[in-house]
Write a structure and sequence with these properties.
The protein is mostly helical. It is built from 16 helices and three strands. α11 crosses α15, α12 runs parallel beside α14 and α13 packs antiparallel against α14. The mean pLDDT is about 95. The structure holds carboxymethyl coenzyme *A.
């Protein structure tokens, strides 16, 4: 073992190859800068790009959207959502939902590329339905099914509220989904790849990935960010709060990144949308509060914000309940996870690293009757 290198948290370790995205010199999906995709593409085009490797032609996009519209959530799944405890974490509901979808998917056990593409497309359409249905049931309302002709982003907002969003709100949601869709070998994607490397299946990989995403050091950070901003309350309290939090060595949610040490390009892009929506919805003071905190964390800790810092505010301005923020990350990232599962299986090798043993040295077994 002496010649094997150990890096805690696998920091700096190259654990595989991918043609799906790179974070070197900015974030690119299949060679396209994420800012360009956010500026010019839709989430559907982005998901297609991640899954198929190329941007769709108008015809391909039309057919893709038609397949998304045709995907349905089986009635027993919606019935089961009614039976879940009303205080269950929404990420647990999403994890259960992804797992249940496997039971009604005609291709669950088929690991061929074509079957995995069909399953991935269905998950892209089904997970938003599960998220909205679970939330409405929790509010004592009946689920609303997707409306044909609407984009995934518009439908997500529509299914939650039964109101079609304005073009600006649809676009804001769409952009957040584009920015969350893919991010190289992050913890949840790596989880998905480990699971499918055993020749398990796509639904198992996505279910496990949701579990990994839930934690506050990964996707769960966006919910913690809003809780912090709400606790601070107003911009005039921001400086006192952040200086105190840093002095007491608190970890500030929404800041820092394992790989981006000079800043997360997604955060910079989304900040402008936060300002736009804040002005439209009367949340200018929260933007001001965020600016004060951001400036001090940069100055004191040299830590730039990550995507969860602006996305939490954006979702708040879109009037979304905080417990939906990480589930929305799921709705988007399922595109990246699925692309990684397909890529892993195209050239699979079981992912099975080694560990440095730190337990007791070899000792003699003592039979139960002789143990004190
Ligand atoms: N607040 C305060 N200090 C921090 C933070 C933070 N958010 N992030 C890192 N540090 C400090 C940390 O205390 C340590 O300082 P010292 O060397 O003095 O002990 C140093 O920076 C290195 O920290 P680390 O935990 O070893 O760094 P890491 O590469 O493991 O951290 C991270 C990456 C994302 C886990 C961490 O920055 C963090 O916990 N951030 C807050 C949670 C968060 O926003 N997560 C979302 C990540 S991006 C979206 C996603 O992928 O889900």
């Amino acid at each position: 073992m002496a010649d094997l290198v150990y890096s805690p948290g696998l920091e700096g370790v190259v654990a595989g190859e991918t043609a799906i995205s790179t974070i070197v010199g900015g974030l690119e999906y299949r060679g396209y800068a994420v800012e360009q995709l956010a500026e010019h593409a839709t989430f559907e085009e982005t998901a297609y790009l991640l899954l198929y490797g190329e941007l769709p032609s108008p015809k391909e996009l039309g057919e893709f959207r038609a397949r998304l519209e045709a995907a349905q959530v089986a009635e027993p799944i919606l019935q089961t959502l009614r039976a879940l405890p009303s205080d269950a974490s929404m990420m647990d509901v999403m994890r259960t939902g992804a797992s249940m979808l496997a039971h009604w998917d005609p291709d669950t056990a088929d690991n061929s590329r074509d079957a995995n593409l069909r399953k991935a497309e269905r998950l892209l359409a089904q997970l938003p339905v599960i998220l909205a249905a679970a939330q409405r049931l929790r509010e004592g309302k009946e689920p609303v099914l997707p409306q044909p002709g609407l984009s995934l982003a518009a439908n997500q907002l529509f299914m939650l509220t039964r109101v079609e969003p304005s073009p600006a709100w649809e676009r804001a949601m769409d952009i957040s989904l584009i920015l969350y869709a893919e991010h190289e070998y992050n913890a949840s994607t790596f989880t998905a790849r480990v699971i499918c490397s055993t020749l398990s299946d796509l639904h198992s990989a996505v279910t496990g990935a949701i579990g990994a995403l839930k934690g506050p050091l990964h996707g769960g950070a966006n919910e913690r960010v809003l809780e912090v901003l709400q606790k601070v309350g107003s911009s005039d309290r921001a400086e006192g709060w952040i200086r105190n939090a840093l002095a007491s060595k608190q970890r500030i949610m929404g800041f820092g990144h394992r790989v981006y040490k000079d800043g997360d390009p997604r955060a910079a892009y989304l900040k402008a949308w936060c300002a736009k929506l804040a002005a439209e919805t009367g949340h200018e003071d929260m933007e001001q509060m965020a600016d004060v905190i951001e400036g001090i964390v940069r100055e004191e800790k040299k830590l730039p914000p990550n995507l969860d810092w602006p996305s939490a505010r954006l979702y708040h301005y879109l009037n979304l309940p905080v417990e939906l923020y990480t589930p929305l990350f799921v709705v988007s990232r399922v595109a990246g996870w699925s692309a990684h599962v397909i890529e892993q299986l195209s050239n699979n090798r079981l992912i099975r690293p080694r560990a440095n043993y730190t337990g007791p040295v070899t000792r003699q077994f003592v039979p139960l009757a002789e143990r004190k």
